[in-house]
Amino acid sequence: MHEASGVELTRRTADEEPAWVSYFTVFDSTPGPTLGRSRYCRRMDLRPQLSRIWDWLLHFGAYPEETLEQRAKRRLFLAVMWIATVLTIPSLLGALGSGFHWVAGIRAFTVVLFIPLLVALQWKPRRFSLWVQLILGMILLTSIPLAALLGGPVASAIDPIFGVAIVVLILILFGVRVAVWWFVAFVATVAIALAVPNLVDPLYVVETPEAEIALNIVLLGFVMLLAMIYFVRQRDRFQQESDDLLHNILPDEIATRLKSDDALIADDYESASVLFADMVGFTPMSATMTPPQLIKLLNDVFATFDGFVQDLGLEKIRTVGDEYMVAAGVPQARPDHAHAIAELALRIRDHTETTRFDGHDIKFRIGINSGPLVAGVVGTHKFSYDLWGDVVNVASRMESEGIPGSIQVTEMTYELIRDRFVCEHRGVISVKGKGDMNTYLLVSRR
Asked: Which residue in 94, 264, 289, 349 has the fewest CB atoms around it within 10 Å?
C-alpha cells in the first residue's frame, strides 16, 4: 500500500473487482514503490449515500402517528411511483422524437402529475387514500386519449394493460372491496379504449409497435413481481409474528408439534422438578399502589426471573397474580432437573434479598418437589402448556407451608440435590391432603 496526494490506494487484483453498485473506481497506472506497474483503485462506498437519498424520496407524507403498516404501504406506493415516473421518461422522449406531440403531452402529464401528489401528501398526509386514488384514477384514464390518438389499445402499445398494475396496487393499499371497484373501472377503460377507434379517426398512423408492446409486458411483469414480493414478505412477516407469539406462549418443542399435528399433546415424565414462588405480603402491599405501579413492579420482578429461567434452560409454566411457576425436565427430559431448579431457587432468593423494587423490599416463599408428572396442552382457545400430578400439588404445598425468604424442598428433591447443595432438615410438617411430610430448607451451594 502507498499513498498519493493524501488518498489511500489499495491494490486491486482480477478477483477483487468492486461491485459497480457500491463503488466509483478511479484507476491509477502509476507503479508502486515495490510492486512494479500494478493497477490501483480508489474506492468510495456509495451505499450509505444512496440509501439516504432513497429514504428521503420515500419520506413524503410521513407523520408522527403513522402506524408501521401505513408507513410500509406509503413507502411502497412512493417507490412504485418513482420507478414508474423514471420509466415513463424514455417513452415521452420517444414520442417527441417521432413527432407525436400530443402523445408526448399525455406522457408528460403523467410525469408532472407526481409533483402535486408529493405536495398534497406533505400538506395533508392523513388523506393518503384520497390523494392516491385521485392520482391513479387520472393515470388510468390517460389510456383512453392515447387509444384515440393512435388508433386503439394495440396501436398504443397496449397501454391500458397498466391498469392491471393499478388495480393490484389498490388491492395492496386499500383492500379487496376497494380493488373490486377499481377492477370494474379498469374493465370499463379497456372497453372504451377498444370502442374509441370506431368513433374517431386517429391523429397519428403507426405500425404495430411490437417492441413497445414487448417492453410494456416486461414492465408490467416487473410491477407484478414487486407486488408479489410485497405479498410474500408480508405473509412471511405475519407468519413470523404468529410463530414468535406462539413460542412465547408455549415451549418451542410443543409449539412446533402443535403447528405440525392436531393430535392431543400429553406426555408422561418419569422424573422432573417443579418450583412455586409466591410473594410474601403481596395483598397489603398492592393495596397501597396504583395499577401502573403494581404492574411495573411485577414486571420488573418476573422479567428478572425470566432471565434466570432462560439462562438455566428451564421452562416457565405460568404466572398467576404474584405466583411464579417453573419446571425442569419438561418438555425435554434432563437428568439434572433437580439441580437446575435448585440453582434457580437460590438465584431468586439471593436477588430479592439484595434488591429493592421501586422502594419495596420483597421476599418470596419458594417450594420445590420432584418426581413423575404429566405435561400437555389443554384447550382450543387461549390454550396453555400445563403440568398435572401429585408432584405439582406437593410443590405448591411446599411453597404455601414454607417460611418467608426460604426455600422448602421435599425429601425426594433433597435426595437428588444433597451432593451439590447444602440443606437443613426442617422436620416433619403437616401438608394438606398428604399428612405429615419430612421437609428440608435449601441453604446454599456446596
From this structure: 264
